[in-house]
Structure formats: C-alpha cells, structure tokens
Amino acid sequence: xxxxxxxxxxxxxxxxxxxxxxxxxxxxxxxxxxxxxxxxxxxxxxxxxxxxxxxxxxxxxxxxxxxxxxxxxxxxxxxxxxxxxxxxxxxxxxxxxxxxxxxxxxxxxxxxxxxxxxxxxxxxxxxxxxxxxx
Length: 134
Prior knowledge:
Thiol Ester Dehydrase, Chain A, 6-stranded antiparallel beta sheet, 6 strands, globular
C-alpha cells in the first residue's frame, strides 16, 4: 500500500459512524496494528457506573478490525472473543489490536484494552473474513 492509499484508509476508518457515535477515536494506525481511545463519558457507562461491556466489546472489535484493514483489503468480523478482567467508571482507556496471522481469506487479530496506568481491563481475539472479490 503506497502513502496515498494509507492516508485514504485512515480517513475511511475515521468515518465509521458507529465508532463516532460511541465516542471512540482512532489514535494510531500502522501496518498490522491499530489503537482506539475512549475518554469515558456518562453515555459509556452501565447502570453500575462502569464502562458497559458492549462498549468494551465494540472498542475491541474496532481496534482489531482496523488492524486487519491495514493491508488495504476489506473485512467483516467472523468471530470475536473477549475476556472482561477489570473495569472502571472514569478516565481514558485504549484498545490495541494487532494482527497475529493473515491468510488468503481470513485474518486473526488479538486485542488488549488497558487503562491509563497500563492495567489490563480486557483481552481477546477476533477473526475477520476478507470480502474483496478474488
């Protein structure tokens, strides 16, 4: 992927309406890696005052999926698995997605969600299917 294609891909990833609706921001995107940030807001919380599990899962899927897309192809989520380890109700959290393996039609990514202190809040893996025409 040339420099112009990389810039177009970054713009496309930033235009994800669902991601914007949930206040996630793409911080970093580079080959096989992407990081999303969430500055926790009241809309991010569950009834117990902690980040909603669905928000954590969505953020993980976005980070892992963005990492998958760094090869310039288009993917959809095949499967996702996330282990919720710890939670919090304020501050900033980040989801880092990294590609573990790329195949011809599928891609496996791992993701870690951490807080500002580097504590692991959630970890998991996601698989993606390439929808580009062969």
